[in-house]
Write a structure and sequence with these properties.
The chain has 234 residues and is of the alpha+beta class. 28% of the residues lie in helices and 24% in strands. It has helices at residues 2-11, 142-183, 221-233; strands spanning 47-50, 53-56, 59-71, 79-85, 92-94, 100-102, 112-119, 125-137. The strands form four sheets. Strands 1-2 form a two-stranded antiparallel ribbon. A hairpin with a 2-residue loop joins strand 1 and strand 2 (53-56). It starts with a helix and ends with a helix. The relative contact order is 0.11.
Length: 234
């Protein structure tokens, strides 16, 4: 308790300070700072859907940006007039011989001798900032993505097989119809735009069936005389 009282007495004791009338120069500076930020907002990655199978992959987002700032002060003052005071100090005190001597205080306090123009340095600040922000979005469940891609590949193979089957059915139907028309003697006119439908169809003889044909029977002189004599006898 005694120590606390002693500390309070020391803090509450009078303090003697020396006071000087000498003016000290003071420098003031001011400035402004503008903070700009570019925000990248995450978005959903691109998804591919194949026959109900949806797969997502890594996506790269590149966002270029361009920003500008302008700063100025109003009212605009290039110079201001700073008063210069009279600091002349010749009298105010006396020496031991009674002569006037300076006492450390201006003889004419507050007296303005003239005004000095001071440049303010005030100006308009303009800046242009540009750049590019990039963001890479990568799915975390890579095993699911791999399985989804395999399923997508199988779906593509199934669709290609289905398309090949439909193409085969179309070509066989075209071949059969064109052959039936050729047998019936019906064909497209060569100048018709639809003549190309059966242009590559060729009608040939089916296996085991003899097409209509003519055979020539060779004859000799002896055979001719025998047949002539037979006619005379008759």
């Amino acid at each position: 308790m005694k120590r606390v009282l002693a500390a309070l007495l020391l803090l509450s004791g009078p303090v003697n300070a020396q006071v000087s009338s000498t003016a000290a120069p003071v420098a003031n500076s001011s400035g402004s700072v503008t903070n700009q930020a570019v925000q990248v907002v995450p978005s959903k990655t691109f998804a591919s859907v194949i026959n109900g199978v949806q797969c997502q992959g890594a996506t790269l987002h590149i966002n270029p940006f361009l920003s500008s700032t302008t700063g100025w002060s109003n009212p605009y003052e290039r110079y201001y007039n700073e008063p210069v005071y009279d600091t002349l100090d010749l009298v105010g005190a006396t020496d031991p011989e009674g002569n006037p001597v300076p006492d450390g205080r201006p003889d004419n306090p507050g007296n303005i001798l003239f005004h000095k123009p001071v440049r303010t340095g005030q100006k308009t600040n303009f800046s242009v900032n540009g750049g590019i922000t990039a963001q890479v979005s990568i799915p975390l469940d890579r095993s699911h993505i791999r399985t989804c891609r395999k399923a997508a590949i199988k779906q593509v193979e199934l669709m290609e097989a289905s398309l090949a089957d439909k193409r085969l059915n179309y070509e066989i139907a075209r071949l059969r119809n064109c052959a039936d028309l050729m047998k019936e003697g019906v064909m497209f006119h060569p100048n018709s735009p639809y003549s190309k439908i059966c242009a590559d169809v060729v009608l040939i003889n089916p296996p085991g069936v003899l097409p209509p044909h003519i055979h020539s029977i060779p004859t000799s002189s002896k055979t001719a005389e025998t047949s002539a004599a037979a006619k005379q006898t008759q």
